[in-house]
Amino acid sequence: MGQPPRVSILLPCLNARQFLDARIESLLAQTFSSWEAIILDSHSTDGSWEVFKSIASTDSRFRLYQLPQDDFTAALNRGRT
Questions:
Q1: What pLDDT sits at residue 28?
Q2: Residue 22 and residue 10: Cα distance in Å, rounded?
Q3: So what's the pLDDT on residue 44?
Q4: pLDDT at 69 over 80
């Protein structure tokens, strides 16, 4: 069993599909590889969730969670646990 990631990146999302390609490309281009992306999606209806599921199927550093449509702070607090 490997060591846990040294960096956790929280990505709250609600219908932000138009911005996801740039976000994901930026993460994947990092030279530092000991990271995880914790996706906190609030039941997006614009295809965001499907994009995240696709990338997570090939990269285990992406952890996906769907949360009720709460405010931004609630999503971040959920990501800390």
A1: 94
A2: 16
A3: 94
A4: no
Look at residues 75, 74, 18, 14 and name the one whose alpha carbon lies nearest to residue 44: 14
Note if the pTM is more than 0.85: no
CA 70 to chain centre: 16
Cα 36 from Cα 5, distance rounded (Å)? 6
Quick count: other Cβ atoms within 10 Å of Cβ 39?
Answer: 23
- Cα–Cα distance for residue pair 81/12, rounded to 1 Å: 14
Q: Which residue has the tokens 């846990």?
A: 4
Cα distance between residue 35 and residue 27, in whole Å? 9
d(CA 49, CA 57): 12
Tokens 């490997």 appear where?
A: 2
